[in-house]
Amino acid sequence: MRDIPGAWRRTAVGAGLVAADGSIRPTIFAEMSALAARTGAINLGQGFPDEDGPAAVLEVAREAIAGGANQYPPGRGIPDLLGAIAEHQERFYGLHVDPDRDVLVTAGATEALAAALLALLEDADDEVVVFEPYYDSYAAVAALAGARLVPVRLRWPDFQPDLDELRAAVSDRTRIILVNDPHNPTGAVFSPEVRAEVVRLAERHDAVIVTDEVYEHLVFDEPHVPIATLPGAWERTLTISSGGKTFSTTGWKIGWACGPAPLVDAVLAVKQFLTYVNGSPFQPAIATGLRLGDDFFRGIAQTLRTKRDLLGAGLRAAGLVVSTPAGSYFTVADAAALGATDAAEFCRALPERAGVVAIPLTAFTTPAHRDDYRSLVRFAACKRVDVLEEAASRLAHWA
Ligand SMILES: Cc1ncc(COP(=O)(O)O)c(C=O)c1O
Q1: How far apart are CA 374 and CA 392, in angstroms?
Q2: Distance (Å, rounded) from C-alpha 213 to C-alpha 282?
Q3: N or C end: fewer C-beta atoms under 10 angstroms in the chain?
Q4: H or E stretch including 240?
Q5: Other beta carbons less than 10 A from residue 276's beta carbon
Q6: Are the C-beta atoms of 226 and 95 separated by less than 8 Å?
Q7: Using CA atoms, how far apart are residues 146 and 130, in angstroms rounded to an integer?
Q8: Does pTM top 0.85 for this prediction?
Q9: How far apart are CA 217 and CA 246, in angstroms?
Q10: Pocket (CB within 6 angstroms of ligand 1)
Q11: Could you report the per-residue pLDDT of 264-307, keeping only the tens digit for each?
Q12: What is the radius of gyration, based on Cα positions, of the chain?
């Protein structure tokens, strides 16, 4: 494999998957899921729910297949979903979005992010500012686009960026400031000061803000605030989200990008040659989901908050120090008190020792910064209550 020429290598290098001998390693997610399967450990590694989402949403997909929605949908997405996304942005955030010009349906948030970076980055001097640790596709796609990643570190325990570090990272070379809020893997929700500084810096250096808001409805304290709602932000912000986390349909891969028409058109120009379109029968189902009542949206945040607390209690009982997340599926814990100095080694041993699988935070960082995160571990709380109870009990008894 390593001898095959081509740009693919850049993604592997970007994602830190090239071993010292030049071979390509599997991701830590694949490694840990395989370990869970082999040992029978509870998989709190990968972030996908183990329960179905709302029945009404699933039913629409079934009906759509039975009703013949099985061919290519329109390139931008079906009008019903475009309309539902626009309504959703208005209803929750007061954003006026033109469904025909300012919205694009994509194959998950992942495709929207990839198409946005490929569309907006031009040459090797272009820089993408990201908050580290980061969702692993960011570095891989920035590398594929041939651009430079400039990480701003989020530090234990609150994982808010230092504003001076953020200012130092953004320059006239910055094409994109990529903001994942609520944040995977840390569960942080950025402060109003951080959001405002992102907008100020983007204006000063004429950068585009690309947001990844896939956990927008999974926040535990304050309502979610999209950066696009800040004064001056809309015209330079591409807001990306998806239905996967909100409706527990991560396998459907229905995502979207919203923003001013020229930005959305730029993404469409690339996206149409990546997947062209996807998910005909799932698009009307996600439209139905986006129009569910407020009680549904309140309910999923409350349920996940309860799960977060359950998981947090188990981790504390095991002797880990926990950073309580304000949103997302995830909780980060510090295993230093248990003697861990290498989170990857700790996670490789955890299934045998405690019957639980987790992911080291170093999987989400550039190799040069791994030391800052060397004893930190990410656990997913998006599992059934009985599964989390069993995980918490295993952790507590292992200590
Ligand atoms: C921060 C973040 N962005 C994007 C995604 C992927 O979203 P989708 O499945 O809609 O492509 C994930 C999934 O784990 C995520 O955590």
Answers
A1: 23
A2: 20
A3: N
A4: strand 237-242
A5: 11
A6: yes
A7: 15
A8: yes
A9: 6
A10: 47, 108-110, 135, 180, 184, 212, 214, 242, 244, 250, 253, 255
A11: 999 999 999 999 999 999 999 999 999 999 999 999 999 999 99
A12: 20
